[in-house]
UniProtKB/TrEMBL annotation:
Signal peptide: none annotated. This is LysR family transcriptional regulator. Residues 1-58 form the HTH lysR-type domain. Belongs to the LysR transcriptional regulatory family. GO terms for cellular component: cytosol. The keyword Signal does not apply. Keywords: DNA-binding, Transcription, Transcription regulation. The keyword Zinc-finger does not apply. SUPFAM superfamilies: Periplasmic binding protein-like II, Winged helix' DNA-binding domain. It comes from Gluconobacter oxydans (Gluconobacter suboxydans).
Length: 298
């Protein structure tokens, strides 16, 4: 068993198939298949159950996949820590950011970071918070901008807390109210976010606790597109207040009776080495948002 075979198994699971994994690994599908068979022979048990065009992890595969993620992440940590010990002046910041809030919170800081640390390369990965958490757990990124709450696998420091608000077409009748309830919104067509966005859980949990079923008309991963759909009269969306206020010319911001907190944090894997480039990013963010740092779990 070696790291090459573990990478192949992880790629098949993540990408959803052998051909997709081959594209990511820059090899052929037959090579990926041979590598998986070699790994299964090494452990003496099947790791993947082939059902049609799909491959599902067996119980042994689940164990191998979980342990493999940790092993590869630990190996990357070891290499990076040794590189810094050797006095490597150039580094890499591997940062995962979500589409919601990154423009307002983080985009203004990159120029300052590059000015302070010109030798550091910034590698940005953009996904919803759920997928970013998976990449962080796997060691594919050093820091992830994730919504709280988080599980015990991560340490974090909070960056910004904002209430979620609803946005409606400018002429919507609910715009005459000082604030709206979830019951008011339950009868309206809603435009929510694509799968992988943790903000969906905040909204869904609120409706569930109120024993209401939302009418979800459409989903998108693009904030500008959601705002355009709202302004055209298709339905009602949700945004953190600081983002919604920037859309006031084309949409109506609706304050919610119930507080739905949107708490953005910077997170990293608990108990692992955090590279100097990532530590420097944390310090810079703390300097720019000191009033928004009421606590962390570190």
């Amino acid at each position: 068993m070696d790291f090459r075979t573990l990478r192949a198994l992880i790629a098949v699971v993540r990408e959803g198939g052998f051909s997709q994994a081959a594209a990511v690994l820059n090899t052929t599908q037959s090579n990926v298949s041979k590598t998986i068979k070699q790994l299964e022979a090494d452990v003496g048990m099947p790791l993947l159950e082939r059902i049609g065009h799909r491959s599902i992890l067996t119980d042994a595969g689940q164990i191998m996949y979980s342990r493999g993620l940790r092993l590869l992440a630990d190996r990357e940590d070891l290499n990076r820590e040794l590189s810094e010990l050797r006095g490597m002046k150039q580094g890499t910041l591997r940062l995962g950011i979500p589409p919601i809030g990154s423009t307002q919170l983080f985009a203004p800081l990159f120029a300052a970071y590059s000015s302070r640390y010109p030798g550091v390369e910034i590698k940005l990965i953009e996904h919803g918070c759920i997928e970013l958490a998976e990449l962080l757990q796997a060691g594919d990124i050093d820091l992830g901008a994730l919504l709280l709450p988080l599980d015990d696998a991560f340490d974090w420091q909070i960056v910004k807390e904002e209430p979620l608000v609803a946005i409606a077409p400018r002429n919507h009748p609910l715009g005459t109210l000082p604030c709206v309830s979830l019951a008011d919104l339950a009868t309206e067509p809603l435009i929510l976010y694509s799968e992988g966005f943790q903000v969906n859980s905040i909204i869904a949990d609120a409706f569930s606790e109120a024993r209401l079923t939302p009418r979800i008309l459409a989903r998108s991963s693009q904030i500008d597109f959601i705002c355009s759909l709202v302004s055209s009269g298709l339905g009602i969306g949700f945004l953190p207040r600081m983002i919604a206020n920037r859309q006031a010319k084309t949409t109506r911001v609706l304050r919610l009776q119930r507080n739905l907190p949107w708490r953005m944090s910077l997170a990293w894997r608990r108990g692992t080495y955090l590279p100097q480039a990532a530590q420097a990013w944390l310090r810079l963010v703390s300097e720019h948002y000191p009033q928004d740092l009421p606590g962390s779990n570190t």
